[in-house]
Amino acid sequence: MANVSDVEALAARAPWFYRKRFTVFGLLYGAAFFFGFLLTGIFAIPPVPVYRSVGHPAALATLAILLAVGGWALRVWASSYLSSNVVWQQEPQATTLRVSGPYRFTRNPLYLGTILQALGIGLVAPWPVLLLLAIVMSAYNYALIAVEEPFLAATQGPAYGRYRAAVPRLIPLPWRHAPSGAERPSLRQGLHSEVMMAVVAFGVIVAVVLTWRFA
């Protein structure tokens, strides 16, 4: 494992798109909506939410809400094993390796929750927006993971190698999980860390209600 000075040096070398990731997330959402609606107009695609453009709108509207709320709930669950300082820090943090809660099933439950929410948002927008959100959010979250994994390997040593071999990077698989660790969650900490994501989930619910009522 790396010593304290090496850990600080590794964290300081995190690329700008990692350190400014919350700003980048906002820019990516803005770009996906801007270019998505632009493509909607160029190709004369009906500017209606995806959930209303195919059959079974009630089922797809429910799915949009479940993705948004479920992504937020997953992030709360994951954040309850960390702290708001870790979640919102600009640089990667060398904390104790978590192998409890959602970390037993996916190494990156926070990023998985973010992608799920993006898909939920996309379902209440036209098709081009959904496709762009799915592409850019998946690619960007994988880029963030690619920054964190070498850092964790250097700071956590062989324990992280064993954890990486046992647990999937992002998508949980029934046959791959780790035994639960000794960490205990703090729901208060999880909720405190994910206030902004709660606003996103609520926004999707409001968007479904408004587009369903006034479409």
Can you characterise this structure?
This protein is mainly α. The chain has helices spanning 4-12, 16-19, 21-42, 50-53, 57-79, 84-88, 109-123, 127-156, 158-166, 187-193, 195-214. The longest helix is centred in the middle third of the chain and has 30 residues, at 127-156.
Shape: globular
Please give the share of residues in helix.
55-70%
Number of strands: 0
Structural class: mainly alpha
Order of helices and strands: HHHHHHHHHHH
Q: Rg to the nearest angstrom? A: 19 Å
How far do the termini sit from each other? 57 Å
The overall pLDDT average reads: 88
Summarize the structure.
With 215 residues, the protein is mainly alpha-helical. Helices cover 69% and strands 0% of the residues.
Walk me through the topology.
Elements (H helix, E strand, L loop, with lengths): L3 H9 L3 H4 L1 H22 L7 H4 L3 H23 L4 H5 L20 H15 L3 H30 L1 H9 L20 H7 L1 H20 L1
